[in-house]
Amino acid sequence: MEPARNELDEPLGQERPSGDASKHRRPRGAIFLAICAVAVLGVSGTVLLWDRFFPASPSVVSKPAAELPADPASKAEKEEALAQSLTPAVPEAAIVHIDPEASPAASRNIIVVRDPSTIGQNPRIAHLPDRALIEQAEAGPLPVRGADGLRPFDAYARPWSGAKGARIAIVIGGLGISQTGTNEAIEKLPPEITLGFAPLGNSLMRWMQTARREGHEIVMQVPLEPFGYPASNLGRHTLLTGAAPEETTRNLHWVLSRITNYTGVMNHMGARFTADRSAMNPFMEELGRRGLLYFDDGTSARSLAEELALAKGVPFASADEVIDQDRDRGAILEKLDELERIARARGFAVGAGSALETTVDAVSSWAGEVRKRGIELVPLSAVAVDPERG
Question: CA–CA separation, 105 vs 96, rounded Å?
């Protein structure tokens, strides 16, 4: 009787004897399946251990593509679908947006969650209002804080580098009054320039959407009572020092309802109103309640705006220079040079101007040169003092 064979004692790579030895041969398919099973078990174990000791960052959350419309037929439907995809359930005090660097296909499946203090609204949907920040009132859509405390000031701010170097913010107001002037301002001015819309302008919602698509941060101009009123009359919705608080609020709501997607408001004239504490207090309280910034154009030395804004929790900024009081191009460029000197000395500077052809042309050409001199152009929100952030 032939002794039993011990395969462990046989040298590797040797041919087996012919004959009945074939009865002991293992099927190659079975060996292959065994190897695959071991590999799968190994990979699964690695993933489980990795997830345990190296948990994934909570800043990226998946959203199944099946939840989104497969192929919206129109541009409006596509924009609505994109906006809908940005509102999943997320941790409190977080803002959700699609990563602008991701491809369109990838952006349907990946939602990026980031701290709202670090970014503003995604530029791809910047012309669409955040419905969580809209109150439907008798006057129309009004800006309001979100349920999680998110302010329009945060949501509609234009992102910037955050660098500590010298920076300049410029606000150009009066958009919406002249259709040609408004179009040229939006087209010619770099997106870092903040735009102010006049409430009595035309086609304001359309112009707002165009400005936001181009990357501009925007503010709403509020007509405030000047000295010399009513000889200097800004219209029937002007906020007046002698008006009852409810009338002031009603007029303010009408102005605020004219457009959406703005970070705050700025004064249009208003030397008498901004110097009157009893008139300014309820005005600032309403801005603080709604999460809006206040920008003072710097034309009145008697303005109480800074004091009252910070007391009411309203983000505040004021202009160091009105760049086009003298409408000569050379004078405007001199004012812009002065802003550069202030920015280098203090770290930042703020200018205010109007959407005049000369102003827009001067600022556009200057903007291309100032970057070469090491100064960053930033939106207004980047230089505002924010009481809520300390």
Answer: 18
| Per-residue confidence (pLDDT) for residue 212, from 0 to 100 | 98
pLDDT of residue 124: 83
CA distances from 182 to 119, 175, 177, 361 (A): 27, 5, 7, 13
Q: What is the mean pLDDT of residues 333-347?
A: 98
Pairwise CA distance, residues 74 & 79, whole Å? 9
Which of the 8 DSSP states describes residue 70?
S
> d(Cα 249, Cα 253) in Å, to the nearest integer?
6
Token pair 């703020």: residue: 350
CB 120 within 8 A of CB 114: no
Tell me the C-alpha to C-alpha distance, in Å, between residue 56 and each of 47, 52, 179.
11, 9, 51
Is there a contact between 376 and 161 (Cβ–Cβ < 8 Å)?
Answer: yes
Write the CB contacts of 265 (distance below 8 Å, at least 6 apart in sequence): 219, 220, 221, 222, 255, 256, 287, 292, 293, 294, 295
**CA 182, CA 197: separation in Å to the nearest integer?**
9
